[in-house]
Amino acid sequence: MKIFLDTADIEEIRTVARWGVLDGVTTNPSLFAKTSGSSYEEVLQEITKITSGPVSAEVVAEDVEGMLNEGRAFAKLAPNIVVKVPMSEEGLEAMSTFAEEGIKTNCTLIFTANQGLLAAKAGASLLSPFVGRLDDINQDGMIVIRELVEIVAIHELETEVLAASIRTPVHMTQAALAGAHVATLPFKVLQQMVHHPLTDKGIKQFRADWDKTREALAEQSQQKKQEVAAAPTQPGS
Ligand code: E4P
Question: Residues lining ligand 1, CB < 6 A?
């Protein structure tokens, strides 16, 4: 299973890349809005230098021509850019044109299995059902992941299910068990996955015991040296 980072924050991406668990990155206009100083294009180029995995860049145009213009420009930035297109009538048309042009797409804002099926038919290489936003309105977002994974497998569709809008480590486990091909996670959720109170406590305890033992050994050896120094010298020695 691939793990993408759901952020436009360069430092977060560098950190997870160093951990050796980064397979790609997803961005969106809201995530870019949290960064400062650089243009969206500059941020995307920086990200593509950190990971060779897919980097999703989202179009904001709502008409086909606008989506195509933005997406083609993104695709020129680096070979691993994937154009993120929202599920809509225009989005489907744009995704099918991108597919003909060999530009990879990630269909975003999917909330039903049927939307995912249509996006797959239009040629999207990634389908992004939003788990957390469905949970927010009291629907079980994980159902869409399970349904889409099954549909993709039954019909041998050439696409991958990317569990998006993941808000908790429990979402991540459930997405993995559901067979999602990819999950995109905020940095905070990845950190939560790393840590466990008993792991963190255990690390501290092992270190404390190690330090105590070394101190005791050092004291014993010091004592021995003092005893040897204090011992009376034998006549003739
Ligand atoms: C990723 O592709 C999505 O844009 C993102 O996961 C949405 O997450 P949110 O619902 O927490 O904003």
Answer: 6, 26, 28, 108, 128, 130, 132-133, 164-165, 184
Q: What is the pLDDT of residues 135-164, one digit of tens each?
A: 999 999 999 999 999 999 999 999 999 999
Correct CATH for 2-194 of 3.10.310.40, 1.10.4030.10, 2.30.30.110, 3.20.20.70: 3.20.20.70
Pocket test for ligand 1, best of 47, 126, 135, 184 (most atoms within 8 A of CB): 184
**DSSP 8-state code for residue 80:** T
pLDDT digits (tens, 9 = 90+) for 63-85: 999 999 999 999 999 999 999 99
pLDDT tier for residue 236 given thresholds of 50, 70 and 90 = low
Cα–Cα distance for residue pair 24/14, rounded to 1 Å: 12
